[in-house]
Amino acid sequence: MHSSSRTSPIRICCIGAGYVGGPTMAMIAKQCPDIPVAVVDLNQARIDQWNSDELPVYEPGLQEVVAEARGRNLTFSTDVEGAIRSSNIIFISVNTPTKMHGIGAGRAANLEFVEKCARKIAECSQGHKIVVEKSTLPVRTAEAVKRILSSASSGATFDVLSNPEFLAEGTAVSDLLAPDRVLIGGESSQAIEQLASVYERWIPREKILTTNLWSSELSKLTANAFLAQRVSSINAISALCEVTGANVDEVARAIGTDSRIGPKFLKASVGFGGSCFQKDILNLVYLCEHFGLSEVAKYWEQVVVMNDYQKKRFSTRMVRTMFHTVSDKQIAVWGFAFKKDTNDTRESAAIYVCRDLLEEGARLMVYDPRVSEKQIRQDLMNVFKASSGEVSERHRQLIEKNVTVVKDAYTASNLSHAIVVLTEWDEFKKLDMQRVYDQMHRPAFVFDGRNVLDAHTMDKIGFEVHGIGRS
Ligand SMILES: NC(=O)c1ccc[n+]([C@@H]2O[C@H](COP(=O)([O-])OP(=O)(O)OC[C@H]3O[C@@H](n4cnc5c(N)ncnc54)[C@H](O)[C@@H]3O)[C@@H](O)[C@H]2O)c1
C-alpha cells in the first residue's frame, strides 16, 4: 500500500518529447486541465520547437491541442531531474531503436535510453512513484526496470506499469482522442487504477483494458507484427497480380468485404515504413530466437523480408520499364514521408527507392509537403553510410549534384522523364495532370507506389502508368 501516492494530487512527467511523448502528453494535458504535465527531453532544440509555433512533429490538429494546454498545465523543458522530483506518475517515452552493434545487432532493441531513464528516476526520486513504460519494449523489460529502480538509495518506492501507445502517426490526435483501447499492464491494482483514472476523464471505462505486465508489453509488439503482416501479405499478392492480370485493389476489395478479414490495412504499396513496424518485428524475432523458438522467429522475419523485396522490386521495375536505364534521366519524386499527414521519414520506403535510383545515376527532383530539405539530405546521407559510418565521395557527390528539393509537385515534374509517387498525400490526387503531362518528356512514365492517382484518367491523357499490383 502506498497511501501517499493515492491521496496526493496527480502530477505527471514524461521523459522523451518525441512523436509519442509530445502528442500523448498534450492530449492528457488538454483533457485534464487540473493535472500538471511536464514533458522533458535532453534534446534542447526539440524542446525549443515544442515551445514555438513550429512544432517538431506534424500531425493534423496537434497545434491546436498544444496551444490549448501549453502554458496552462503543459510544459516542455530539459529539466529532467526537476520534473521527476515533482511528479508522482512518470512516463518513459524514449526511443528504443534497433541495436546497431554488439549482441543482437540488427534485431534486438537498444534499451540504453530506457535504462538511463530508470537510473535517473532511481537517483532523483523520493517517496512513492508510478513509473509507466510508454515506449515499446521487449516482453519482460519491466523486470529490469524494477531492478534498477529498487537500487534507489533514497528509499523511494515504485510501481511499474506498462501502458504501450497504439496511436498511428498521421492520425495521432484523433487516435488519442478516441482510441480503440487503452492498455495498462501491472501488478499493483492501486497503481493501475490511478493511471486508469487519468484516461477515464475522456475514455469510456470499458475501453481501458488491464492485464499483467508481460501481456501488455507483448501485446504492443504483437499488434505491430499483425499490422505489418497484413501489409506484407497484400504486397506479396500484388507481385502475383502484376504477372497474372489480376488487380490488387480489386482483390483487396473482394477479400476485405469478408467480415473475418475486414477492409482495413489491405492497401498494397511500395512497402511499409515508419519507425516501428520493422524494429518491433525484428525485436519479436530476436525474442523468439532467444527463447529457442526458431520456427516462430522465421515466420515473423518473413514479414520484413517481404517488405524489403517489395521496395527493391519497385525500383527494379522502374529501371526496367524505362528502357533499362535511368542514368541522367530526371525523375520527380512525389512524397518522402513514410505516410501522409506526418513529417516523419524514419524507414520511409522513399529513402530506399531514392537510394536505388541514385545508384543508377538518376537525377531526382524531390517534393514533400512536410519534410524539410535538410531531413531529406540527411536521410539519403545515412542510407549510403558504410558499416564504418563513412559515406563515400561518390555517394556524397550523388546526393549533392543529383538531388534537388523543390517546393511543389509541378516544379518536380517539369522536364522529368518519370514521376514516382512514394507518399499518398491527398494533394497529389488534386493536381492538374494535363498540366503535369504537358511539362514532361515522352513517354511520360508514372510509377504510383501508393496507387493513389486515377490510372484511367491518366491513361487517357497519355501517361504510361505503372501502379502496384496491376499488370
Ligand atoms: N512513433 C510512433 O508512431 C510510435 C507509436 C507507438 C509507440 N512508439 C514507441 O514509443 C517510443 C518513442 O517513440 P518516438 O517515435 O516518440 O521516438 P522519438 O525518437 O521521436 O522520441 C524519443 C525522444 O526521447 C528522447 N530521449 C532519449 N533518451 C532520453 C533520456 N535519457 N532523457 C530524456 N530524453 C531522452 C530523445 O531525445 C527523443 O526526443 C518508442 O519506443 C517507439 O517504439 C512509437
General description of the model:
The strands form two sheets. Strands 3-2-1-4-5-6-7-8 form an eight-stranded mixed beta sheet, with helices on both faces. It contains 19 helices and 14 strands. It is α/β, with parallel strands linked by helices. It has two domains: 209 residues, 3-Layer(aba) Sandwich (Rossmann fold); 199 residues, 3-Layer(aba) Sandwich (Rossmann fold), CATH 3.40.50.720. The site of nicotinamide-adenine-dinucleotide has 26 residues, from α6.
The number of domains is 2
Radius of gyration: 24 Å
Average pLDDT, rounded to a whole number, is 97
Shape: globular
What is the CATH architecture annotation of the largest domain?
Answer: 3-Layer(aba) Sandwich
- Predict the CATH topology of the largest domain: Rossmann fold
Beta-strand residue fraction: 5-15%
Got a strand count? 14
The helix-and-strand class reads: alpha/beta
CATH class label of the largest domain = Alpha Beta
- Number of helix segments? 19
Ligands (ions, cofactors included)? nicotinamide-adenine-dinucleotide
Between the first and last Cα atoms, what is the distance in angstroms?
65 Å
Poorly predicted runs are 1-5
Q: Specify the helix fraction band.
A: 40-55%
Strand order of the largest sheet: 3-2-1-4-5-6-7-8
| CATH homologous superfamily annotation of the largest domain | NAD(P)-binding Rossmann-like Domain
